[in-house]
């Protein structure tokens, strides 16, 4: 047993001040109370439940921030040219490389306040495109990386079958491909086994995108696939994808999904950037979730999600860091809100009738829909019987030390960054303290020598 005393902890209804949190040896909250008789660690900070990173492609961290030289201004550099660079990277990495890069990435996520990541994983096979003898070799490496970094992981192995709408996979996509639903289900089964290697790991499933699997196989995968796991899919990210879908499917992507699958509360639609009103309404009415990745969507020039319309229909959304050009959850929320402010010329874009505080509003969505993306149905911020996963902000930071309690959360969300944190706790244990991951030296050393070996930066 261990007890912490915090200056404040954030609950669904707001801050509770001067609170003791007692956890058992597994990090499960035993008691949250205002009094305490046991020894305790006094923390002069504000604890909020750890952020949920609902969309990650770990290997892409190896190229974060280095796709910004655009030598010829006359030639379009867009999502599709970026994707070519990403494909080249995907072809070069070994299982060890993937593990080192993912461990570094996940450690950095924890430092920024994420305590759980959904790994949308499609790099399945060896460099020649053959399955490893362990079908989930890379999934196992990702789980191992999460365990080393101290983050929880929901492994989401992806069904990826085609090169594009109606086209066979190209050689450079060879590491991604499952030829049939049966092959994909074998991969899913192997992935389930590797999630058993770490108590912080769980499983979800998904289809990479509508263009990546042929239509009858999407329908049969949804029909025969698990009914109790979160389902993730990239959708409607790029305008070209909408046009291709209209040509090939005679339908817009989300429209096709709504008409051909049982869209429900287990669905997590990644990006869903370009929607018409019937699609916005359909997603919200089905209780499906949208996963927004504002820093990556901005970096790739995707577009701006119609958040205000979605909100009016009661839509639910989470955040993810996708290509990992940004790892700061506060920044994801800000970019998301500011995009809405910029296109509406309003400031009250991030509220609803029940929550007038933008910081509290954005945080609640990101947390609760983020947990659903992981398969965690707990809607209580900190709850006895649940793991104690938190990011703690420094009560002596000037902007917090000078704020009234009612302004603390928005001060964190709208003016904070990682320097405002005291650390991150997962299962009741400090994984990052004073901005330093407990295994920083080893993880960073492995990462740098791996990247030097790949010779890509
Ligand atoms: Zn993605």
| Average of per-residue pLDDT values | 96
The CATH architecture of the largest domain comes to Alpha-Beta Barrel
Named once each, the bound ligands are: zinc ion
**Head-to-tail CA distance between termini:** 45 Å
Radius of gyration, in Å, reads: 21 Å
Determine and state the CATH class of the largest domain.
Answer: Alpha Beta
CATH homologous superfamily designation of the largest domain: Metal-dependent hydrolases
Structural class: alpha/beta
- CATH topology category name of the largest domain: TIM Barrel
Please provide a written account of the structure:
By secondary structure, this protein is α/β, with parallel strands linked by helices. The protein folds into 2 domains: 2-49 and 380-441, Urease, subunit C, domain 1; 51-374, Metal-dependent hydrolases (TIM Barrel), CATH 3.20.20.140. Helix content is 37%, strand content 21%. The protein contains 15 helices and 17 strands. The strands form 2 sheets. Strands 5, 6, 7, 8, 9, 10, 11, 12 and 13 form a 9-stranded parallel β-sheet that branches. Strands 3-2-1-4-14-15-16-17 form an 8-stranded mixed β-sheet, covered by helices on one side. Helix 2 (95-112) packs across helix 15 (440-454) and helix 12 crosses helix 14 (408-415). The chain is globular. Residues 55, 57, 120, 234, 270, 322 line the site of zinc ion.
């Amino acid at each position: 047993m261990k007890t912490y005393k915090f200056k404040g902890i954030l609950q669904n209804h707001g801050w509770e001040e001067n609170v003791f949190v007692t956890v058992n040896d597994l990090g499960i909250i035993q008691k949250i109370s205002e009094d305490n008789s046991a020894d305790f660690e006094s923390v002069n900070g504000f604890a909020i439940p750890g952020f949920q990173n609902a969309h990650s492609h770990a290997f892409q961290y190896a190229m974060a921030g280095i796709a910004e030289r655009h030598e010829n201004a006359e030639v379009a550099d867009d999502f599709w040219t970026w994707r070519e660079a990403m494909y080249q990277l995907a072809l070069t990495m070994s299982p060890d490389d993937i593990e080192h890069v993912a461990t570094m990435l996940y450690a950095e996520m924890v430092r920024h306040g994420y305590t759980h990541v959904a790994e949308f994983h499609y790099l399945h096979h060896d460099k020649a495109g053959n399955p490893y003898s362990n079908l989930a070799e890379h999934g196992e490496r990702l789980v191992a990386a999460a365990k080393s970094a101290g983050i929880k992981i929901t492994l989401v192995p992806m069904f990826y079958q085609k090169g594009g709408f109606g086209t066979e996979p190209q050689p450079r996509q060879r590491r991604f491909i499952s030829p049939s639903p049966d092959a994909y289900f074998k991969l899913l089964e192997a992935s389930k086994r590797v999630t058993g290697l770490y108590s912080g790991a769980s499983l979800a499933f998904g289809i990479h995108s509508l263009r990546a699997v042929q239509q009858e196989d999407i329908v049969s995968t949804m029909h025969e696939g698990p009914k109790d796991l979160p389902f993730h899919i990239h959708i409607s990210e790029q305008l070209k994808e909408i046009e291709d879908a209209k040509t090939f499917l005679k339908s817009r992507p989300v429209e096709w999904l709504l008409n051909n699958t049982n869209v429900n509360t287990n669905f997590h639609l990644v990006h869903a950037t370009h929607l018409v009103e019937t699609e916005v309404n359909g997603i919200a009415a089905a209780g499906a979730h949208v996963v927004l990745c504002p820093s990556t969507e901005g970096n790739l020039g995707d577009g701006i999600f119609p958040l205000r319309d979605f909100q009016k229909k009661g839509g639910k959304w989470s955040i993810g860091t996708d290509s990992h050009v940004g790892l700061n959850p506060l920044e994801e929320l800000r970019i998301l809100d500011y995009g809405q402010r910029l296109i509406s010329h309003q400031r009250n874009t991030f509220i609803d009738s029940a929550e007038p505080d933008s910081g509290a509003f954005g945080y609640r969505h990101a947390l609760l829909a983020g947990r659903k993306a992981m398969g965690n149905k707990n809607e209580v911020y900190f709850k006895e019987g649940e793991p104690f996963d938190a990011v703690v902000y420094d009560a002596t930071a000037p902007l917090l030390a000078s704020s009234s309690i009612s302004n603390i959360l928005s001060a964190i969300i709208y003016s904070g960054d990682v320097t405002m944190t005291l650390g991150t706790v997962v299962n009741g244990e400090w994984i990052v303290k004073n901005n330093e991951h407990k295994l920083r030296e080893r993880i960073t050393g492995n990462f740098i020598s791996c990247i030097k070996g790949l010779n890509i930066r």
